[in-house]
Amino acid sequence: MRQYRLQLEYQDRFSYSWGYAIYSAFLAELNEELADAVHGDVFFTQYMTPEEWVVNTTAPFDFKESYHLHRFGADIRLIEQEISTITEQELADKFLIKEPYQKTIRLRFLTPTTFKQDGEYVLYPTVELIMQSLTNKWNVWAKSFLLEDIQWDNCQISRYNLRSALYFLKGIRIRGFVGYVDLRFWGPESMIRLANMICNFAQYSGIGIKSTLGMGGVGIGK
Q: Does the structural domain 99-220 have CATH classification 3.30.70.1900?
């Protein structure tokens, strides 16, 4: 997995929904084969904050120096790029073996996040929705260490600070939330370590729906 962190420069008023606009502009510059790969076989998530555009993908990409966001009439310059890589084995070794584990983990929802349940958008995260989303995303990416038949009944939300936020996507207004939740874990060390692993994977996978289109961007801690 490659993570590109691209520092931004712009003059206009920032909108969370720029995440979808820059994704569209980025796709428009790719050749047909790469664009199809993003829609298909390649693991790809991205989101934008006022400071940076973060792209997580299993394929290498080149980025232009600037993108024009047609819907907003905004021009975005990419002024600095930082690239890091992580493998499935490295994540597993770090959180299942090497690193001290944490019983409380803060998930920061950096862009509007939501889930879809029974055909409706969910405006408040639950432990079940968060952990199931992360488990599903891990299993999409992982090649050898799949998480099957896991019940996340060893955790609860111990603190939160959330507010509603809108995300505009293809002419649709999606209501989500930004802010943070603290998840507290208990029980066998092995289960706490598994939870540490997939919660930290959220930095790459995002949480909830439409993480390819700019929703569900996540940071850890602080």
A: yes
**Helix (H) / strand (E) containing 7:** strand 2-9
Residue 189 DSSP SS3:
helix
102 contact partners, CB below 8 Å, separation of at least 6: 196
The pLDDT, as a whole number, for residue 45 is: 95
DSSP one-letter code for 14: P
Residue 191 near residue 103, CB atoms below 8 Å: no
- Predicted pLDDT at 191: 95
203 closest CA partner among 191, 181, 221: 221
Which residue ranges make up each domain of the chain? Answer: 2-85, 99-220
The pTM of the full predicted model, rounded to 2 decimals, is: 0.94
DSSP states of 53-118: EEEEESS-----SEEEETTTTEEEEEEEEEEEE--HHHHHHIIIIISPP-SEEEEEEEEEE-EEET
Looking at residue 210, its amino acid is: K
DSSP annotation of 152? -
Number of residues assigned to the chain: 222
